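Key idea: predict the complex, not the pieces.
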Amino acid sequence: MSDLLAARSQMAVSLAFHIVFAVIGIAMPLMMVLAERRWQVTGHAIYLDLAKRWAKGTAILFAVGAVSGTVLSFELGLLWPRFMAFAGPIIGMPFSLEGFAFFTEAIFLGIYLYGWDRISARAHLWAGVAVAVSGVASGVFVVIANAWMNAPTGFELVNGQAVNVDPIAAMANAAAVSQTLHMTLAAYAATGFAVAGIHAFLLLKDPANAFHRRALEIALLVAAPAAVLQPLSGDLSARHIAVHQPVKLAAAEALFRTQPDASLTLVGWPDVAVQETRFAVEIPYALSLLAFHDPHAVVQGLDAVPRAEWPNVPAVYVSFRVMVAAGTYLALVALWAAWLAWRRADLAHNRWLLRAVALATPMGFIAVEAGWMVTELGRQPWVIYGVLKTQDAVTPMPGLVVPFVTFTLLYCFLGVIVVWLLYRHIIRSPAVPEWRGFYMPPGSGERGAGSST
Amino acid sequence: MTLADILAGIVFVALNAYAVLGGADFGGGVWDLLALGPRRERQRELIAEAIGPVWEANHVWLILAIVLLLTCFPPAFARLGTLLHIPLSLVLIGIVLRGSAFTFWRYGADEEQRHWGVVFAIASLITPFLLGTTAGTIASGALGEARGAKGDGFYAIYVAPWLNPFPLSVGLFALITFAFLAAVYLTLEAQERELQEDFRRRALAAGLGLFLAAVMALLFSLNGAPRVRDGLIFAAWALPLHLLTAAAAITALAALWVRRWRVARAAAVTQVSLILWGWALSQYPYILPPDLSIAGAAAPAATLRLVLGALALGAVVLLPSLYYLFRVFKSSVRAT
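Result:
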């Protein structure tokens, strides 16, 4: 394994690991705050139990996210010192702002987790809101930095040096809005559906459990709107890359030749050697239509750049299809649930919906990982698109396979432990017999209030 | 004083805050490992309760220092990452294991509980030692540009700078410093007289160990870190700084002796901060001695001005939040 490949692999493993916890850290606080608010409004202990249980899960996941995020901030220098030496002055600003947002998040999470008996109920809820808001802010700042790597701006290149640096212009780069929107929605959809899916699965086994019913409702409330909006945000992203990163779009669609009236490939296998997509099932004009909202628009193909500047076409192509398929599934399930809710049907009674939601548990995270592979692999061989190649950014230190293997083993170990701990301590039915029924206290304003079983 | 000097100072303030806050959390892990006697379990419980609500916030000081460094002094960040790849990677493994093991121990607890406590404690031992070693390597002036360019072997470039008596003695010094701070803070956290006495004895012992480690580091600096040596002995500010540090150290130990816990805490924080600023002053104007100066490593003025503005705005949010955090968890006047 070459040092460059080892460094890229270590960065990929670190990001793929961290992003799961980062995404949960964005969306989970919102759900725990909603549960706590329901508790304050209805006075029913189910919601308190739910808020506390979600908070406990958040505590574990946030801690792993915090330390794996620390690893990433160091790895920028450990693996890509030449990238940071160039990019630091231009794009360090959002990292610094992220530092503050993360600080706020950590402070108020400490207050939230340990402050149940120490501060007023109102202050406690607001501490949770502060965690939720600063969590979103952290994510947005980090994604802005990544967006700049895709759409670098805010400097002039003179003899390989960046001059006239303008960090504000760098933050306001062309990819910033579409990427941050797409990522934030993804965080809510992925986390919300993962939680909803777990509770749907438990409801299938234990259909009358009021605890899981309430958990499912709150999780879907967070997940469904995000999942429905996500395809629209995806359209924004696609139209952005069609103009600003045409090679990435061409790789995602395996479009070898620049052409008007470009058709969209649903499935097929891109054969890079002969520059054709085998077994292709295509929709005519659809790619031109999606990329430029014009069926006859010219879409740039891979032939627009030298062969040496192509990303790994099959990897980007497959990742893109995985992301779109998983995202579409979530959007359809979300629409189905919304339609049922609009017709005032009982979601927890519809076993087909529960099965579909249970199946959605990993889908959001699969889409998130695949989406990052599209954007990161699709930018290669550049680390800063059109400015700095990844191979010129890597550290001169040899033997990088050693840290790569070490951190991979460490993360595999941690991943197994986290899943096991969540399974053992968080994901289980509460030991409150009366919640086993559909019981809800009279006058609580809940559907089914006063009824039992 | 230039804009770059101000930002370098702010990076160092963040490091100082990390040392006296985050450092003490590591020190708590050390005392968890060394928990002894009939009150062993109560000591561990007290340590975990003291660390629990604040360790993540305390940890962010390090991240803040790192992101400010990569924004304002990118060549320094790049050179640190390159030449100190090995110790910094080990620090990261320590940080990951310490944080996750602590959380697993506190939230996933049942029969396997103590395993995670042990991982937490051992990671708390190794991480500060390596952080101190990193600081010692910087101070020793071994991270010069010339070293990387000479085309030496792997060992000479990536290992020799830090695997040296002086950096390692600074590592030991950092470890004992953090243990000392933790023991002093824990005298205030303890509700019971007996636990207070436990940590009073530990604080006194660590205070003595701190003195010995300082002497050792100073001896090694004679050969290993000429710039630090010269700065700490010959500079105009050296004598007053030594007198102040000594006064703070003696005050901390005396206050522990007569059980004035709050005075001891204030004096211990002052002592550790003065030592850190002594280091900073001794290598000024260099950010990475012997050749990378603050001015030479500084990002363009446009970036520095913006970061300074962002820091001012961020402080408006951060400082009241931190005050609130510590008021909620650390303010109650406890057993006397």
